[in-house]
Amino acid sequence: MEKKFYRINQLIKSPKLRVIGDDGKQIGILTLPEAFAKAKESGLDLVEIASTAKPPVAKIIDYKKFVYLEEKRARKSKKSHGGDIKEVRFTPFIAQADFEVRIKRVLRFLDEGNKVRVVVKFVGRQLTKKDFGYEIIRKVKIALAGQCEFESDPKWMGPNLIATVTPIKKIENERNETENQKIDIPPV
């Protein structure tokens, strides 16, 4: 998460500021010394929150509390964004151990809140055996049963069979119980 720099107290250079009080209500347009005196009077900091506005906007608030609230808002927006789409590739003739490793990777991505694109990649003459791709997707569905949802049926995009998986939101206790259980993965 990238930290944003905010000017506070003596670092503010603008001669006039639109000031917002600690209760969130607008105080009005004040000169810099007046705004600084108001902040000092309440025992708080003067933080410039919108330096590009005309006149710049400053808020009377404890600086550490302000930074905490900004970080909290950034985390919440990132969480509601739904995460990224991660991709895990399989082949139509994948070995059992490799299949298990990729299933564990899919589960890790789902636990992080990301969508996962499951790709079965066909090369050369493997394209004549398209049924094996559907079989791999079916085994992935069995291995991930109850832990995710498939958005749609698998689709062909060029030489790849693609299905997208989204996490199911669960209660923390249920997630902890499933982590303690061994993953039942069907043989390939």
Put the structure in a nutshell.
Residues 84-167 form the Translation initiation factor 3 C-terminal domain. This protein is an alpha+beta fold.
Class by helix and strand content? alpha+beta
Counted beta strands: 9
Mean pLDDT: 86
Principal-axes shape call: rod-shaped
GO cellular component, one term: membrane
Subcellular location: Cytoplasm
InterPro entries: T_IF-3_C_sf, T_IF-3_N_sf, Translation_initiation_fac_3, Translation_initiation_fac_3_C, Translation_initiation_fac_3_N
Keywords: Cytoplasm, Initiation factor, Protein biosynthesis
Question: Can you give a write-up of this model?
Answer:
The chain has 188 residues and is of the alpha+beta class. 36% of the residues lie in helices and 26% in strands. It is built from 5 helices and 9 strands; from the N terminus they run E-E-H-E-E-H-E-H-E-H-E-E-E-H. It has helices at residues 32-41, 63-80, 96-111, 130-143, 172-180; strands at residues 16-20, 26-31, 45-50, 57-61, 85-90, 115-121, 148-150, 155-157, 160-167. The strands form 2 sheets. Strands 5, 6, 7, 8 and 9 form a 5-stranded mixed sheet that branches. A 4-stranded mixed sheet has the order 2-1-4-3. Strand 5, helix 3 and strand 6 form a beta-alpha-beta unit. It is rod-shaped, with a radius of gyration of 27 Å. The two termini are 40 Å apart. IF-3 binds to the 30S ribosomal subunit and shifts the equilibrium between 70S ribosomes and their 50S and 30S subunits in favor of the free subunits, thus enhancing the availability of 30S subunits on which protein synthesis initiation begins. One of its GO terms (cellular component) is membrane. Residues 84-167 form the Translation initiation factor 3 C-terminal domain.
